[in-house]
Specification:
globular, 537 residues, binds zinc ion, alpha/beta
Length: 537
């Protein structure tokens, strides 16, 4: 009796509240869905902007730390659209942060903008033909990511303004990603301190996202400089102390060491200074190493050993040695809650509709580069992707792989890397062939599809606080429960902004002649006189 009365009493007070809460939730879900549909439609009408931005950045072809035209062009677009820009962040002239909105959540949207050396290549043709011989080019596809992010942010902002939706959008570039040279510095200097979540985009060949251990390697990029004394190489070689000897001995020692490293390591070097001419004993020489492994401890151990070897060969050759950290990245680990939210929207958006020209170019390029018949996961490589990727969780085993300094952000703020299909499957990566698709309808379509996924996910995160609270729960209680982020960058390590200067000084004047002019040409392909797809020369 008492119980039933109690229940009745409870029902009278609790149920109406529950019902109102449920109604509110259904209401906000319906609204979110409506905004998502609206933003996707408006992004469909932005194909021209997508093409223009992607082609423009492609034509700038700027190497890391020298993305001056790219950064000026993109920040100008953001400024015109109401974003506040802070330039030159973390002591990096081409780095910036663009912000719009107020209060929480603060959502960071980023992508890389630099290109790679000697990858200059005409787009839309199925043969090797540089725009400027030996010049840098977008042989990785970093010309597409920020245009994607900017498209999404501008369209989402319009609805946020109209509907009074609270939140802050923060857009930022991965400067010098190919040198893994900036993101750990952004973290060190506090630029992600108040950020709630980060969606990073990277060019790929499907719509995809994953969470957990990504299976790739972290690294330190470190240059060793030796100094000895010069002498006449024939007249008095016994008086010389060769810095080049030290470099060569260091490399020999490291190559012997390989036998005793784990199979997951990757280490590679280039000699950045090998002396001037043979008849002068080189008084100065330098070698630049990337040392990669799967965990912080293993990277640190390689780093310590490399320093030990450098000091040892300096003693052997009577030279002095100094070293400097030029770049660093942690091994990747990405957020579950955000990845799941992104993947839901991937399923809604679906892959772009490729036409026969897109597929023809893709197959011709695959033939040209002798692409493997299957991916490492065993899926066939034949033209452009027509079947969506699945949502992948943590890798169970990895032989090791490349690196991206987005990991340093991901170890500090819940982050995912969202991939979009703007490139051709089966290309070698970091190669001129990887530039072919990057100013063609393949890249443009990939960017528009990708921008819809990012925009839709933004609405999910702005309206549903559970995505971000779950993201932090995963970050604190799973990702960083046992592994704590220890930066390789010291409190005073300067960013290596001197890198690539010589190459850009040499090629910028030549590349300038080929900057895209949208006032005269509908597309960059048209400007270059390319009939898409041009399969033979
Ligand atoms: Zn990249």
């Amino acid at each position: 009796m008492i119980y039933s009365r109690l229940i009745l009493l409870c029902c009278c007070f609790v149920f109406p509240k529950l019902i109102t809460a449920q109604k509110n939730e259904t209401n906000s879900m319906q609204k979110t869905e409506a905004w998502k549909n609206e933003v996707m439609k408006s992004l469909d009408s932005k194909k021209k902007s997508a093409q223009e931005m992607v082609d423009m950045v492609f034509s700038f072809s700027e190497l890391g730390f020298h993305e001056t035209k790219t950064s000026a062009y993109l920040t100008d677009i953001l400024k015109k659209n109401g974003f506040t820009i802070e330039k030159g962040i973390a002591g990096i002239p081409t780095a910036w942060m663009a912000k719009w909105g107020t209060g929480k959540p603060v959502i960071a949207l980023g992508s890389d903008i630099d290109c790679i050396p000697k990858a200059s290549q005409k787009p839309g043709v199925a043969y090797k033909e540089p725009i400027v011989e030996d010049a840098p080019g977008h042989g990785e596809g970093h010309n597409s990511g920020l245009p994607l992010v900017i498209l999404s942010a501008i369209e989402v902002k319009k609805i946020m303004e109209r509907e009074n939706i609270q939140g802050t959008l923060m857009i930022w570039p991965g400067v010098a990603e190919e040198l893994v040279g900036t993101k750990a510095w952004y973290i060190r200097d506090g630029y992600f301190k108040n950020v709630d979540a980060c969606i990073f985009t990277h060019v790929g060949n499907n719509l995809g996202v994953s969470w957990g251990d990504a299976g790739n390697n972290g690294l330190v990029s470190v240059e060793f400089k030796f100094e000895g004394s010069s002498a006449h190489s024939a007249g008095a070689p016994w008086r010389g102390k060769s810095a080049l000897d030290a470099v060569e001995l260091m490399n020999v020692a490291w190559n012997f060491k390989r036998e005793h490293l784990k199979p997951t390591q990757r280490s590679h070097y280039v000699i950045t200074d090998g002396g001037d001419q043979p008849n002068v004993v080189p008084s100065k020489a330098a070698v630049w190493y990337y040392l990669r492994e799967r965990t912080y401890e293993d990277i640190k151990s390689m780093y310590d050993d490399a320093i030990l070897y450098a000091n040892s060969v300096a003693a052997m050759t009577g030279t002095k040695v100094s070293h400097r950290l030029l770049g660093t990245a942690w091994p990747g680990h990405f957020n579950k809650s955000i990845a799941e939210a992104v993947y839901k929207n991937i399923k809604t958006v679906g892959l772009p509709t490729w036409d026969s020209s897109d597929q023809q170019l893709a197959r011709a390029v695959q033939k040209l580069v002798n692409a493997p018949k299957k991916t490492q996961r065993g899926e066939p490589i034949d033209g452009l992707a027509t079947k969506l990727d699945t949502l992948n969780g943590p890798v169970q085993f990895s032989w090791g792989a490349g690196s991206d300094d987005i990991a340093d952000i991901a170890w500090n703020v819940p982050t995912v890397v969202f991939r979009y299909p703007s490139n051709i499957p089966g290309t070698p990566g970091h190669n001129w062939a990887d530039a072919i698709a990057m100013a063609t309808p393949i890249a443009h379509k990939g960017v528009v599809s990708g921008s819809k996924v990012v925009a839709a996910t933004l609405f999910d995160m702005l309206i549903n606080p559970k995505i971000i609270s779950d993201a932090w729960d995963y970050h604190k209680n799973v990702q960083t429960r046992e592994v704590k982020y220890i930066p390789f960058v010291g409190a005073k390590t300067p960013p290596a902004i001197h890198l690539n200067k010589k190459i850009m000084d040499e090629f910028k004047p030549q590349l300038k002649k080929y900057y895209y002019d949208p006032s005269k040409y509908k597309t960059y392909l048209e400007q270059l006189g390319i009939q898409y797809p041009q399969l033979v020369k």
